[in-house]
Amino acid sequence: MSNAQVARGKRGSILLLALFFMFTLFLLAVAFFKLLPTELQSAARSSRDVKAHYVADGGVKNAVSWLKGQVGTITQAELDANYNDTYDNGTPLVVDGHWSYTCRIDVNTTGSGLFDIVSQAWYHGRPI
């Protein structure tokens, strides 16, 4: 075999090797593009969950602030008349155009001066 034939054979094998690596990279790119929508949905869901946490936490802080402003012992009837019916009458309090929350305070029966506060975040009118 002459040197020219050996050189041609090496060029051919390098071409095949380059095509193989290009095909492998193409398959990896396709796999990443198939994973991208799933990752974007996961990130959006995570972001929504964090926002829901902070919106619901805002409801709890609102309730705690209201409780701190009250004087004396508060009964469940007073809570229902003055807070729960006002703030939790079926219409969530709107935080912004998309997020809102409902919050309810109940007297805890296990101890004096303890309350149960339940806050629910809503997104586009649906509870989260």
Can you walk through the features of this model?
The chain has one domain. The mean pLDDT is 85. The chain has two helices and four strands; from the N terminus they run ααββββ. It has helices spanning 3-68, 76-87; strands at residues 93-94, 99-107, 115-123, 126-127. Helices cover 61% and strands 17% of the residues. A hairpin with a 2-residue loop joins β3 (115-123) and β4 (126-127). The chain starts with a helix and ends with a strand.
- Termini Cα gap: 76 Å
Q: What would you call the structural class?
A: alpha+beta
Strand content: 15-25%
Counting DSSP H or I runs of 4 or more residues, the number of helices is 2
Work out the radius of gyration: 31 Å
Q: What's the helix and strand layout?
A:
Elements: H1 3-68, H2 76-87, E1 93-94, E2 99-107, E3 115-123, E4 126-127
Antiparallel strand pairs: 1-2, 2-3, 3-4
